Amino acid sequence: MSRVAKKPVAIAKGVEVTVLADSVSVKGPKGTLSIAKPEGVDVVIENGQAQMSTSDASLVPMAGTLRAILANMVQGVSEGFQRKLELVGVGYRASMAGSDLNLALGFSHPVLFKAPEPTLPRSPGHWVEWVNFAKGTGPVPGSNFQYSGWTTEANHLGNVAYRTGQKIEWDYKNIRAKNTRDADPFIKRPSYRAGWEGILKTT
After folding, report:
1. Of 1, 72, 170, 195, which has fewest CB within 10 angstroms of its CB?
2. Same structural domain for residues 14 and 71?
3. Is position 159 within any domain?
4. For 90-113, how does the pLDDT look when each residue is reduced to its tens digit (9 = 90+)?
5. How many helices (H) and strands (E) does the chain have?
6. How far apart, in whole angstroms, are the C-alpha atoms of residue 27 and residue 76?
7. In what order do the strands lie in the sheet with 31-36?
8. What is the C-alpha separation between 80 and 72, in angstroms, rounded?
């Protein structure tokens, strides 16, 4: 196990973490978030901490990724996130005027920065949005669905090329590498769970 995956996630007071067979949800004062739990990665809640574990060496990076995301989820639903900026200079000041930011930056007049209105609806979670849109039961996600699919596929193929030590010529229609069969074990599983027949084309 990596050092990241081994490090437990401290569950803040007032936060409830629920682990299901295929997902993990976190509920706190600021809302509820959920994420899919990778098959083969276990999450155990004990003594106010969440601990990741896996018996599959190839899933250790995924366990570390899940740990990092889960830690951010706990912070998000309990404290939220903030960015602190430091003004450096003689006479520079910043103060809040309602929801707007009032800046004194050396000009003869103050600079008023109006807080932008929220442009995206509250998300039930990226994974939930993605699955609902793929099934045709939900609206277009806040992020570009098609673009995220392309970038995810490109990242995955980069990993496959690294592991095989070969250049990958990708056949996106048949979901396979055209120039080598060494990539197959990293691209396809021997079998898929029921429900993916209409999405994945096996050859």
Report:
1. 195
2. yes
3. yes
4. 888 888 888 888 888 888 888 888
5. 5, 11
6. 10
7. 16-19, 23-28, 31-36
8. 9
Cα–Cα distance, 148 to 133 (Å, whole number):
13
**Rounded CA separation 176/178 (Å):** 6
Residue 103 lies in a domain: no
DSSP SS3 for 44: strand
Strands across the sheet with 49-53, in order?
9-10, 49-53, 42-46
What count of Cα atoms within 13 Å lies in the side-chain half-sphere of residue 181? 1
Which token pair is 193? 């769970």
Looking up residue 65, the CATH number of its domain turns out to be 3.90.930.12
Let me know: does 74 contact 26? Beta carbons within 8 Å. yes
Q: Would you state the structure tokens that stand for residue 135, as one six-digit string?
A: 């099934």
pLDDT, one tens digit per residue, over 126-153 is: 777 777 777 878 776 665 656 666 778 8
Neighbouring residues of 202: CB distance < 8 A, sequence distance ≥ 6: 188, 192
Are 202 and 188 in contact by the 8 Å Cβ rule? The answer is yes
- Compute the Cα dihedral for 46, 52, 57, 59 and give only its sign: positive
Q: How far apart are CA 177 and CA 184, in angstroms?
A: 7
Structural domain harbouring 138? 126-187
